[in-house]
Specification:
Shape: elongated
Number of helices: 3
Helix content: over 70%
Number of strands: 0
Structural class: mainly alpha
Number of domains: 1
Strand content: under 5%
Length: about 110
Amino acid sequence: MTKQAFWRVALRTLLVLVSLAVGATFFGLCMPMLLLSLEILPSLGVGSIIYVIGGAVIGLIAGAVWALVSLPRGGPVVTRKYMVGTVVALILMGIYQWAYLNFDALQRHH
């Protein structure tokens, strides 16, 4: 394997891991906490961890599918579609964190 091919594989691996992490964080933490705070999901007390685990699994699947769809095998290593999708997910997580810190209604799940 050439040095250039090694760095290309390493970068693609990093991009897939970022996609998995963003998906698991968004669907595993942000969405369940938002839905619990808005009382869309019923509170199960300590059992609400099921929502976090289930959301994380869904996020891992979504992140894997997103990486598969937006990072083609040939062509550029980083596509515009991948960057836009990842940045949008990060912005949504940032908006959720900002709202969580500023609105008492979002802190009801404690």
